[in-house]
């Protein structure tokens, strides 16, 4: 263990915001987490930095999760159980499972970040959330100084939410996820109910898509809509899609006939945050060095030289515009550090 001091975090967040960590340690094996020198009063567990807004310097310890490894743990008549370490690139892992003939995760193709962060945010796209296929995960508990296993039913998954966010464990640095086990059912069914995906497949005259076809279609759609962070720094979708009451959704639909609406299992209605932002006039609009992407209004981008305060200023302006036009509050997805 060789803790680094005063480390630049700009290369470790996809918004390319400046900030330094007072102490920094790259974690490449679970056993490193047990080291006494990591029991700092203030910690932050860093993954791929794709869901992070740096607001300045961090005066604590940053643990950068980079544990590698993936394998077929076991299989039975109904499913494959596939384990991936926290430091595995998410998209690469998804493509690997498909190449092995274990479908199920294809709708989550090209989502940035690492495997270890996926359960925290309960990442989701195109009709699938990672919590639906997660079996269990292993984590190091700094408070109790022990490894623990958390089953899917105990993760309290919800829309872009989980036990780890609800209890504040991630932001406080109490838990560090080291590996995740996914249960991929052998009775696979294509999930192409989102119009963008169906249209992409139709454009290629693919009537009966394979899992690889769906992964390729979703990757193509995402690449058209979302900027490459290496070229235009961003953190992907910046706001949650708001969920409102049926009455509020009906009122808004009457006032705005083009409003996209998605009924939820609990009776509420999910709205498309990107559509609200675009209608509020923020698609392609910037406030200083930070703005909303010209091709997808849900994506906040750094046009160059932005700091955390610039992000917060633009975020507040977008929230105010949407609130004024629709009486709907937008909540940011990224973690602010």
UniProtKB/TrEMBL annotation:
It catalyses: UDP-N-acetyl-alpha-D-muramate + NADP(+) = UDP-N-acetyl-3-O-(1-carboxyvinyl)-alpha-D-glucosamine + NADPH + H(+). GO terms for biological process: cell division; cell wall organization; peptidoglycan biosynthetic process; regulation of cell shape. Belongs to the MurB family. This is UDP-N-acetylenolpyruvoylglucosamine reductase. NCBIfam families: murB, PRK00046.1, PRK13903.1. Residues 17-187 form the FAD-binding PCMH-type domain. Its cofactor is FAD. Pathway: Cell wall biogenesis; peptidoglycan biosynthesis. It comes from Dechloromonas denitrificans. Keywords: Cell cycle, Cell division, Cell shape, Cell wall biogenesis/degradation, Cytoplasm, FAD, Flavoprotein, NADP, Oxidoreductase, Peptidoglycan synthesis. GO terms for molecular function: FAD binding; UDP-N-acetylmuramate dehydrogenase activity. Its EC number is 1.3.1.98. It is found in: Cytoplasm. PANTHER family: UDP-N-ACETYLENOLPYRUVOYLGLUCOSAMINE REDUCTASE (PTHR21071). The gene is murB. The active site is at residues 160, 237, 333. Gene3D superfamilies: 3.30.465.10, UDP-N-acetylenolpyruvoylglucosamine reductase, C-terminal domain, Uridine Diphospho-n-acetylenolpyruvylglucosamine Reductase, domain 2. The lineage of its organism: Bacteria, Pseudomonadati, Pseudomonadota, Betaproteobacteria, Rhodocyclales. HAMAP family: MurB (MF_00037).
């Amino acid at each position: 263990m060789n803790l680094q001091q005063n480390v630049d975090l700009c290369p470790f967040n996809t918004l390319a915001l400046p900030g330094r960590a007072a102490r920094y340690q790259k974690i490449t094996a679970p056993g490193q987490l047990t080291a006494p020198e990591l029991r700092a009063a203030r910690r932050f567990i860093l993954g791929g930095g794709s869901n992070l807004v740096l607001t300045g310097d961090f005066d604590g310890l940053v643990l950068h999760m980079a544990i590698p490894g993936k394998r077929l743990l076991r299989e039975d008549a109904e499913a494959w159980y596939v384990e991936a370490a926290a430091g595995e690139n998410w998209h690469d892992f998804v493509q690997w499972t498909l190449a092995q003939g274990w479908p199920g995760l294809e709708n989550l193709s090209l989502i940035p970040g690492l495997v270890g962060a996926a359960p925290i945010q309960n990442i989701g796209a195109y009709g699938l959330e990672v919590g639906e296929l997660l079996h269990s995960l292993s984590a190091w508990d700094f408070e109790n100084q022990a490894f623990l296993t958390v089953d899917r039913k105990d993760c309290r998954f919800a829309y872009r939410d989980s036990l780890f966010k609800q209890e504040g464990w991630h932001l406080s640095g109490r838990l560090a996820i080291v590996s995740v086990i996914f249960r991929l059912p052998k009775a696979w069914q294509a999930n192409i109910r989102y119009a963008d995906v169906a249209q992409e497949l139709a454009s290629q005259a693919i009537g009966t898509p394979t899992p690889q076809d769906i992964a390729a279609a979703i990757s193509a759609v995402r690449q058209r809509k979302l900027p490459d962070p290496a070229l235009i720094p961003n953190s992907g979708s910046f706001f949650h899609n708001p969920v409102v009451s049926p009455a509020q959704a009906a009122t808004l639909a009457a006032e705005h006939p083009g409003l996209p609406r998605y009924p939820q299992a609990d009776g509420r209605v999910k709205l498309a945050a990107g559509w609200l932002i675009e209608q509020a006039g923020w698609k392609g609009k910037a406030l200083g060095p930070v703005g909303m992407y010209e091709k997808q209004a849900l994506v906040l981008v750094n046009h160059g030289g932005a700091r955390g305060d610039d992000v917060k200023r633009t975020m507040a302006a977008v929230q105010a515009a949407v609130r004024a036009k629709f009486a709907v509050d937008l909540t940011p997805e990224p973690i602010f550090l």
